[in-house]
């Protein structure tokens, strides 16, 4: 478990589904269609948590496309970054996002 993740479990308001969904993400309003592909660790009605090779700052808005198993189309969300925690491996960040 990444450093600091455990303390957040105690304050979550909504149950989370721990499953490895594919998520594509980029800064909202960023030019171009290129999105970074990552693996989501969990999701709830309020937000999600995923690993990323990119670090984001709290307060930044992301465009997110989530591909659910068996789903035809990706779900499209926007979310506000709540925290960004460095992973144990170099160049990996764990991003907590609240859907807006």
Care to describe what's here?
- The protein has one helix spanning 5-9; strands at 17-27, 36-43, 47-52, 61-67, 75-86, 93-99.
- The chain is built from one helix and six strands.
- It is 5% helix and 51% strand.
- It is mostly beta strands and 100 residues long.
- The longest helix is centred in the N-terminal third of the chain and has 5 residues, at 5-9.
- Strands 1-2-3-6-5-4 form a six-stranded antiparallel β-barrel.
- The N and C termini lie far apart (26 Å).
- Widest sheet, order of strands: 1-2-3-6-5-4
Ends distance:
26 Å
Helix content: under 10%
The 3D shape can be described as globular
β-sheet strand percentage: over 45%
Question: From the helix content, strand content and strand pairing, which structural class follows?
Answer: mainly beta
Structural Rg: 13 Å
Number of helices: 1
Q: What secondary-structure arrangement, pairings included, does this model have?
A:
Layout: H1 5-9, E1 17-27, E2 36-43, E3 47-52, E4 61-67, E5 75-86, E6 93-99
Antiparallel strand pairs: 1-2, 1-4, 2-3, 3-6, 4-5, 5-6
How is this structure best summarized?
The chain has one helix at residues 5-9, and strands at residues 17-27, 36-43, 47-52, 61-67, 75-86, 93-99.
Task: List the keywords.
single chain; 100 residues; 6-stranded antiparallel beta barrel; 1 helix; 6 strands
């Amino acid at each position: 478990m990444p450093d600091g993740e455990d303390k957040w479990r105690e304050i979550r308001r909504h149950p989370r589904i721990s499953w490895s969904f594919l998520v594509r993400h980029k800064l909202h309003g960023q030019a171009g269609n290129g999105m970074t592909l990552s693996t989501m660790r969990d999701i709830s009605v309020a937000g999600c948590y995923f690993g990323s090779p990119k670090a984001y700052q709290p307060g930044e808005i992301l465009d997110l496309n989530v591909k659910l198993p068996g789903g035809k189309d990706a779900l499209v969300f926007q979310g506000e970054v709540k925290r960004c925690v460095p992973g144990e491996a170099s160049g990996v960040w764990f991003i907590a996002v609240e859907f807006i």
